[in-house]
Design goal:
This protein is an alpha/beta fold. 36% of the residues lie in helices and 14% in strands. Strands 1-9-8-5-4-2-3 form a seven-stranded mixed sheet, with helices on both faces. Strands 7-6-11 form a three-stranded antiparallel sheet, with no helix packed on it. The protein has a three-stranded antiparallel sheet with strand order 10-12-13. Helix 1 packs antiparallel against helix 8. The longest helix has 18 residues. The structure holds pyridoxal-5'-phosphate.
């Protein structure tokens, strides 16, 4: 596949798609006409809606999940010399933010069955330099949160959940983000809710919340700032915190806010697609589906499978106009992370046999049947 993503022609069934309800177009136009497009009432509305819908105790809005992760590490004072335990099987942003803080990512192994970090491996990697643990709910299938949080409690380590894939996923009857130290969501283009780019941080910790609100905008909490027309910076700006420029503006907040109103449409459609794949591919030879758990509900952000000879498989499907993706490579193949680790056996296996089937709300019933048939043909 040599073409750029945006050049892919319409007859190809894409791995992912973007959902922007028509209403969002009208609402963004209204925001644009309102003369206030900076961080303002739309951003506040979004935080309120997200908190009510998914039970976030406190919520901060930012311009991407990468910013959310970086800000989280910064308020935890992760710095050079520190180690952060993380997963090697993820989009690089989970781990580049650790490098940006000058710290070292220490990779724990993952579980073959669900691609999520293995709590047992986390515990083995803890040293006196460990400052935090980052986990990813891969493809929207929640991690073993109870075990991971117990390890965090035992060793006094905060757990950051990279929930870029997991808006609306559930763990033990609660939405991801309703519990937990710091939970970072992405609103990037292929997510269930998108604002083009954007992110949300949920936390159950008031101290983290207050620090996050400051660090995402030059050290100033926009909610409580006191403006004095004769002072270029707010009256209560003390210059005591070195902050970033990560705030979310009202244009993209409007997009995400309308997206929340339409969330069930997208989520339900993805459940239908996912359940059909799971039922109809369950007995397919040479394919292994992900393990899902009775006490968790995935949001089907992605649909990874294990498949033998994935290159041949991908080529076959592409020949039949179905686009597959190898979503992520193990991050330690990239030199910036300090070289390939040799103590991650499951990561090694997964890095050879995982592909993503198309998964998005635009897939028609006919397309789903076609994909299922071609997948079966490919492994015959
Ligand atoms: C696991 C994971 N973490 C972080 C990110 C970064 O998200 P964003 O593009 O919103 O910065 C992504 C991107 O999709 C991701 O897949």
């Amino acid at each position: 596949m040599k073409k750029r993503d945006y050049e892919i022609d319409d007859k190809i069934i894409r791995t992912w798609s973007t959902f922007v309800p028509d209403e969002a177009i009208t609402e963004v136009a209204n925001t644009l006409r309102s003369k206030w497009i900076n961080t303002g009432k739309k951003e506040k509305e979004l935080r309120g809606k997200a908190s009510r819908k998914w039970g976030f105790p406190y919520c901060v809005a930012v311009n991407s999940c990468t910013s959310a992760l970086r800000a989280s590490l910064a308020i935890l004072n992760v710095k050079p010399g520190d180690e952060v335990i993380s997963t090697p099987f993820t989009f690089i942003a989970t781990n580049t933010v650790i490098l940006e803080q000058g710290a070292k990512p220490v990779f724990a192994d993952i579980k073959y069955d669900d691609l999520n970090i293995n709590p047992k491996s986390i515990e083995k990697k803890i040293t006196r330099r460990t400052k935090a643990i980052i986990v990813v709910h891969y493809s929207g299938n929640p991690c073993d949160l109870d075990e991971i949080r117990e390890i965090g409690r035992k060793h006094n380590l905060p757990v950051i959940e990279d929930a870029a894939h997991s808006m609306g996923s559930m763990y033990k009857g609660k939405y991801i983000g309703a519990t937990g130290d710091i939970v970072c969501f992405s609103l990037q283009v292929v997510k269930l809710i998108t604002s083009g780019d954007g992110g949300l941080i949920a936390t159950n910790n008031k101290d983290y919340y207050q620090k996050l609100k400051k660090i995402i905008w030059y050290g100033i909490d926009r909610d409580t700032k006191i403006t004095n027309l004769l002072n270029p910076l707010p009256e209560n700006f003390r210059g005591d915190v070195l902050g970033f420029k990560y705030n979310m503006n009202d244009i993209i907040a409007t997009l995400a806010s309308v997206g929340i109103d339409h969330f069930e449409e997208v989520a339900t459609r993805r459940q239908i697609v996912g359940q059909r794949y799971r039922e109809e591919l369950a007995d397919c030879p040479k394919i292994k589906l992900m393990k899902y758990y009775n006490d968790r509900k995935p949001n089907y952000q992605m649909f990874p499978i294990h498949v033998e000879n994935r290159v041949r498989f991908a080529k076959y499907l592409l020949k039949h106009n179905i686009m597959l993706r190898i979503n992520n490579r193990r991050n330690d193949i990239y030199p910036m992370f300090g070289g390939l680790r040799n103590d991650l056996p499951m990561t090694t296996r997964v890095d050879q046999d995982v592909v993503l089937l198309p998964m998005h709300a635009d897939l028609t019933d006919k397309q789903i049947s076609y994909i299922i048939q071609k997948v079966k043909d490919a492994v015959k």
